[in-house]
Write a structure and sequence with these properties.
224 residues; alpha/beta; 5-stranded parallel beta sheet; 3-stranded antiparallel beta sheet; 8 strands; 48% helix; binds 2'-deoxycytidine-5'-monophosphate
C-alpha cells in the first residue's frame, strides 16, 4: 500500500479551520476529518446524561460501555452519530461548544477518542483538524499547520456562521465564549492548544476565505 498523506491543522476556535480544511481537502482529493466534532459529541452525551461537565469524574461516568460515537461520511460530508442518532446539528449549539471544551480537558476523554483519530488517519489521505493533532495525535504528520486569527476576527466569523445556521446569538457573547474557550484550551494540563515546533504558522486575521484556502493549499503543496 502506498503511504498515505496526513496533514495536521491545529488552531483556536473560529480561525476558519473547518471551512478552510474542508475546501483544501476537496481540492487535493483528501478526506477532511473534524476532530472537534468528536469532543462535541462526547460533550453532548455528557449534557444529555445530566453530568457536571466541569467535573472529571462525572464526565468519565458518561463514557459507558454502551456509548457509541460514530463518524460517517455522507455525500462527502462528515456527520456525527451518538448511539445511532445523527447529532451533527445539535453539537453546534453554544451549550455543546462549552461542554466540548470542558470534557476535552479530561484525560480519559482524550484517550477514548485517540484511537479513533489514529485509525482514520492511518488509512486515508486526510486533512485532520483540531487542537493537538500536530503535537499529540499525528506527531509524524507530513504537513503541520497552525492556523490562527485575532479573537475579534474569529468571533465575527463564528457569529455570522451561527446566524446563517439559524442559531441566534449576540456578537459579544460569542466573543466572550471564544476568549473563555481559548483560555481553557490552551491552559489545560493535558494536550493544550499549542503550535508544534515544526508547524507552519498561518494567520488569517487580514485575509479572506479564498486567500486563506490558497495559502493553506500552497503550504501543503510546498511540503509534499
Ligand atoms: O474545533 P471545535 O470548536 O469544534 O472544538 C470543540 C472543542 O473541542 C474545543 O473547545 C476544544 C476541543 N478539542 C480538543 O480539545 N482537541 C481537538 N483535537 C479538537 C477539539
Amino acid at each position: 500500500m502506498n503511504k498515505v498523506i496526513n496533514v495536521a491543522i491545529d488552531g483556536p476556535a473560529g480561525a476558519g479551520k473547518s471551512t478552510i480544511s474542508k475546501a483544501a481537502a476537496a481540492k487535493l482529493g483528501y478526506i477532511y476529518i473534524d476532530t472537534g466534532a468528536l469532543y462535541r459529541t462526547v460533550g453532548l452525551n455528557a449534557l444529555r446524561k445530566g453530568a457536571d461537565v466541569k467535573d472529571a469524574e462525572s464526565v468519565v461516568s458518561t463514557l459507558t460501555d454502551d456509548l457509541k460515537i460514530e463518524l460517517k461520511f455522507i455525500d462527502g460530508e462528515q456527520r456525527m452519530f451518538l448511539c445511532g442518532e445523527d447529532v451533527s446539528k445539535e453539537i453546534r449549539t453554544p451549550e455543546a461548544s462549552m461542554a466540548a471544551s470542558a470534557v476535552s480537558a479530561v484525560p480519559e476523554v482524550r484517550k477514548y477518542l485517540f484511537d479513533l483519530q489514529k485509525n482514520l488517519a492511518a488509512s486515508n489521505n486526510c486533512i485532520m483538524d483540531g487542537r493537538d493533532i500536530g503535537t499529540v495525535v499525528l506527531p509524524d504528520a507530513d504537513v503541520k499547520i497552525f492556523l490562527t486569527a485575532s479573537p475579534e476576527a474569529r468571533a465575527k466569523r463564528r457569529h455570522l456562521e451561527l446566524t446563517e445556521k439559524g442559531i441566534e446569538t449576540k456578537y459579544d457573547d460569542v466573543l466572550a465564549d471564544m476568549i473563555e474557550r481559548d483560555y481553557n484550551d490552551s491552559h489545560r494540563a493535558i494536550a493544550p492548544l499549542k503550535k508544534a515546533d515544526d508547524a507552519v504558522l498561518a494567520d488569517t486575521s487580514d485575509i479572506n476565505l479564498e486567500e486563506s484556502i490558497e495559502l493553506i493549499i500552497s503550504i501543503i503543496e510546498g511540503k509534499i
